[in-house]
């Protein structure tokens, strides 16, 4: 059932490369899991991939989910990362999301979002993808009672590889539920990996963009959300309101505009 066999022996064009980090059938299982309310139990979380571009080639993406269920990813052109950061903080506070469950890629203009949070007294998780994971996520991830620790991935070259390897493991072992999103699926299938000097290396965002002609904004925000989400193990025979039952919608708050002084208040 490998992509290589499908292509070479059966003449079927695979929907993923032989070096793909994530398999198509794992994603399809996660789509099906979205109908299972057990995955929706837990705290809300954001994953934020920031991009500042007036042309709109690269878009900012914000992934939102509760527990092990990813509800939505919103992308939009962003011409001011500072303003975008204030809006992220505002919505996170309105939704009662704890700062340790908001992960932001700080490479480039992502630091503007983190700084906006600091100004407003809301310290989000700064994800330095190219850096080493020196914090030790086995301990740092267990921030709530009963949470499931993140699998040790000491073989990964950097934090980017480790975050993506964690997403791979969660999808492989059926730990996630994702509302069907075909563009997200394409992003996830575009990520490739290899071993270099015994270390797991995930292809960089820049190289992926060169290969497919666009940035994997949705895939990256999904990866960050999965890294900082409430990781308590999915329990059976538990129910929670389905996404959409809340009086607050995902987009309504984010569209609001407030000054930093009012946000701080």
Q: In terms of topology, how is this protein built?
A:
Elements: H1 3-8, H2 24-33, E1 44-49, E2 60-66, E3 69-76, H3 81-94, E4 102-105, H4 110-119, E5 125-127, H5 137-140, H6 159-172, E6 177-178, H7 182-189, E7 193-196, E8 199-202, H8 205-212, H9 217-228, H10 250-254, H11 260-264
Parallel strand pairs: 1-4, 3-6, 4-5
Antiparallel strand pairs: 1-2, 2-3, 7-8
Helix pairs in contact: 3-4, 6-9, 7-9
Could you walk me through the main structural features you see in this protein, from its secondary elements to its overall organization?
- With 265 residues, the protein is α/β, with parallel strands linked by helices.
- The chain is 36% helix and 14% strand.
- The chain is built from eleven helices and eight strands.
- The chain has helices spanning 3-8, 24-33, 81-94, 110-119, 137-140, 159-172, 182-189, 205-212, 217-228, 250-254, 260-264, and strands at residues 44-49, 60-66, 69-76, 102-105, 125-127, 177-178, 193-196, 199-202.
- A six-stranded mixed sheet has the order 5-4-1-2-3-6. Strands 7-8 form a two-stranded antiparallel sheet.
- Helix 6 packs across helix 9 (217-228) and helix 7 crosses helix 9.
- It is globular and about 55 Å long.
- The model is unreliable at 134-144 and 237-265 (pLDDT under 50).
